[in-house]
Amino acid sequence: MTVAAKSPGPPPTSLTQRQEARRRRILDASVQLAGRGGFDAVQMREVAERSGVALGTLYRYFPSKIHLLVAIMQDQLDHLHTTLRKRPPAGTGPAERVAETLMRAFRALQREPQLADAMVRALTFADRSVSTEVDRVSQQTTAIILDAMAVAEPTAAQLSAVRVVEHTWHAALITWLSGRAPIAQVRADIETVCQLLELAESEPATADGATETGGRNRSA
After folding, report:
1. pTM of the entire structure?
2. CA angle, corner 17, sides to 13 and 19, nearest 5?
3. Secondary structure letter of residue 187 according to DSSP
4. Nearest to 98 by CA among 153, 161, 155, 173
């Protein structure tokens, strides 16, 4: 079914208790479908039937399957963040702690490869209509990495390094899901790129806040 793009539904924080319960049923039904058959198994009509909501109601919450699967990624990241706060990584430096954090996330995805594939494909296929939701995923990932680094106020250099780590993490997921990279290669790539975080941490700053090697900050 093809549905015209609509404005995303209200963010979870603005939902009533009843609406949040309905949203949770929708997400749970979608996770079950994706876990069983991946991206193609998530059909909006079946999601509506399984979650006990009208199809029109489902589309008010999630304008498309892509919106729905990206929301599942947000939910998974929220759960991961909560878990990591209760049991933070034990590495001695930021690179080691972030690598441990990302590998813990990766092991969780390994347990549900069909679900992981559905979420990653949704992020890959997302267009501008899903930009708000995709931005939230990026912000959540950044927050998880900064927490692992134990950094509350990152510098521009650190944020740049975090973005490179995020890009590598996403690419590693894609290559693993496609069968082109074993887990050992994923770990090696993640551990290597995380070294950038320590380089960024040690980068000296000039008087105007720019790094010496990064040049001066300019306004757009």
Report:
1. 0.82
2. 80
3. H
4. 161
